[in-house]
């Protein structure tokens, strides 16, 4: 399990849930770091981000992926008006060279996307790609989790599961 605080190159900390967060300096060597201006986020790791004003495509490279095992990648984005432009950007998100989704960020809401798949190599790449000249891609959080055999079982190793919606059934506290 790997939890990366993007935009904090060297930091490490353990949050109240016992998750160990590390900085992103060992996983990317491009882009610039910033702190958000809107501070309504609850999560410490969303208070920094890494943005990419000079590259069309920028990638995190995560080594040590176990071949044949399903992995979940969660990419989170909290614009938080880091550039004082009040103009949340849109851009593409990719994993291992494959188109994942088109990301449209929000001024003050954290958004995330998840994918579950079996990597073909012993590393995982997660990229943000610029789609329009005035739209600067960024990323706040990157999480990679390896699943135990049998979790999210599908018929083949080529299958990819993408989060559509998460719902808590049977809980009185969540809608």
TrEMBL record:
Pfam families in alphabetical order: Malectin_like
GO cellular component, one term: membrane
Location of this chain's protein in the cell: Membrane
InterPro entries per record: Malectin-like_Carb-bd_dom
Residues annotated as domain Malectin-like: 4-172
Membrane topology summary: Single-pass membrane protein
Entry superkingdom: Eukaryota
Name of the protein in question: Malectin-like domain-containing protein
Protein species of origin: Nymphaea colorata
Phylogenetic classification of the source organism: Eukaryota, Viridiplantae, Streptophyta, Embryophyta, Tracheophyta
């Amino acid at each position: 399990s790997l939890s990366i605080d993007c935009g904090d190159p060297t930091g490490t900390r353990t949050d109240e849930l016992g998750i160990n967060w590390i900085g992103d300096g060992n996983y990317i060597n491009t882009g610039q770091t910033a702190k958000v201006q809107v501070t309504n986020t609850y999560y410490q790791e969303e208070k920094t981000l890494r943005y990419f004003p000079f590259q069309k495509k920028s990638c995190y490279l995560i080594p040590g992926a176990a071949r044949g095992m399903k992995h979940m990648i969660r990419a989170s984005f909290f614009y938080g008006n880091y550039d004082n432009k009040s103009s949340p950007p849109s851009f593409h998100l990719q994993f291992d060279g494959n188109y994942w989704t088109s990301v449209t960020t929000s001024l003050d809401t954290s958004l995330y996307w998840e994918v579950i798949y079996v990597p073909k190599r012993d590393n995982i790449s997660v990229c943000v790609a610029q789609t329009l000249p005035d739209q600067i891609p960024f990323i706040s959080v990157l999480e990679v989790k390896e699943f135990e055999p049998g979790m999210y079982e599908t018929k083949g190793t080529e299958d990819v599961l993408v989060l559509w919606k998460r719902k808590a059934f049977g809980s009185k506290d969540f809608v």
